[in-house]
Amino acid sequence: MQDYSTKKSDPEREFAAKVLCLSNVNxxxxxxxxxxxxxxxxxxxLKLFSESFESSALIKLTLSNKRTKASDLNNxxxxxxxxxxxxxxxxxxxxxxxxITSNYPAGEAAGEIEELLKETFMNADLxxxxx
Length: 131
Prior knowledge:
By secondary structure, this protein is an alpha+beta fold. It has helices at 38-54, 106-119; strands at 2-8, 12-20, 26-34, 58-66, 73-83, 86-95, 99-104, 121-128. A five-stranded antiparallel β-sheet has the order 7-6-5-4-8, with helices on one face. The protein has a three-stranded antiparallel β-sheet with strand order 1-2-3, with no helix packed on it.
């Protein structure tokens, strides 16, 4: 038998799990975790993304898992490219019947990624050359 109880504190939540053992001894496990908001998650991702781009470790960023099934945009692939001796980020917007490619400087790219994650996609996979 298991009895799970939850105690809330802001911004951390403390979860306590009580487990009834065979010897009739109650054990309580308590762990604190910090639940991050969407804005905090996006901010952390953008920081890692910027750092990996600046250190030339960025391979690609993939945005996927549409928020609404009605959206024609399936996913977005973002990768660094060099155009006219300047490093920019190439966005490939993948639709069901076509692909659209746009190039953005790093500053504009961060804003575009943030908007896409808030409005269109729920998942971001960052691939870097560093572990």
